[in-house]
Protein: allantoinase
Amino acid sequence: MVQAHVSEAIVTAGGIKAGALLVEDGRIVGGCGIDEIPGDVMRVEHGKMALLPGLVDSHVHINEPGRGDWEGFETATQAAAAGGYTTLVDMPLNGLPETTNVPALEAKRAAAEGHCVVDWAAWGGCVADNQGELEGLAAAGVCGFKCFLVYPGCEGFTMVDQAQLEAALPAIARTGLPLLVHAELQGPIDEAAEGLKDKDWRSYSTYLASRPDEAEVAAVRMLIGLCRKYGFRLHIVHLATGLALEMLREAKAEGLPVTVETCPHYLYFSAERVPYGSTVHKCAPPIRSERNRELLWQGLRDGVIDLVATDHSPCPAEMKRMDVGRFDLAWGGIASLSVALPVMFTEAVRRGFGLGDVMRWMGTAPAKLAGLEDRVGSLGAGREATFVVFDMEAEWLIGVNDLYFRHKVSPYLGERVKGRVMETWVRGQRVFEYGAGFAEGRTGRELRLC
Structure:
């Protein structure tokens, strides 16, 4: 039976328009105007609710296998569905074992089997000593690779120095897959630490001073030089400093294959708003000033920043050390999967952007980064019927019951936002409905590049 999903606001790459998506056997078989809907189809009325493609989050820490007590496939994909995400690309560092070789990738696949509400894919890890594993990971279906230029917080996932990175880059270039880099260098961080030994570590200003802009700027400068030398696809994850935007603009103008992401927390919060001892705001790189936040928004406007990913990095509540409020002791990570879309929509609308812009930043561009753009991130005939029903007019206060991920810890608690995910559909099946919860069964699957 063909279904006609009818809406006054269907969001496509060509704009927002009234119409209907015609769906049969889990696929979009066409579209039409509201007055053109065939009489023999079942109408599903969405009224003024927007229909947009399922979002793609290309930067998520799911943590299974091995650290399911932090977050697992079940809770991460539930939070994703509630937040309008239908594809997650998992980072390689927080599971045990870390995804740095094919056996570890297979262990992750086993952990995911039968537990996913939405679809997922995997990044492979590039660490100090696994240069010989990278092409095997590519052949096994990862979307690309992730590395750290500083200590990542997990002992088993080693950072790379420049020499180790250069040893890996020829293999990465041969795969044609992107290298995602946590772009901070240790030198400026170590220099900053010398003057902070006696400072108050419950003050956010102390933590901010410990991760200076120059750590990011120096790393981006080095990476652009390596991109020019080796010709690999470079992706800068979670850019937090606006001071690197001009050199990134120049690198793109030069034709280098460079893409850039930032995160909702850098676009929503500012250092001036972080309360004393509020370790739930700790992340790395850190949330910077209000002025810096507006530079990042300008970077999005100008196209220097390509996409927005959550860097959803959950942990057990005790690891945030809210009991003592010391930023030097707390885990650095912000959990936001189920609320990132309304957070971004709220701030985007304030600056004159629309839902189509948000869809591009959080759907189309992340899908392209991961090599999945032929399968996810847009609506069109022949595509799987994977989409989100979004109430653009809803205004609400984020509460504990809106988080859905495993540990209800987030700096977004208590924030007032606009826009709410009402339903999420995957391959023609509704997997989430606001107020009713999640469908039975776990039909999410892995999306592999090969």
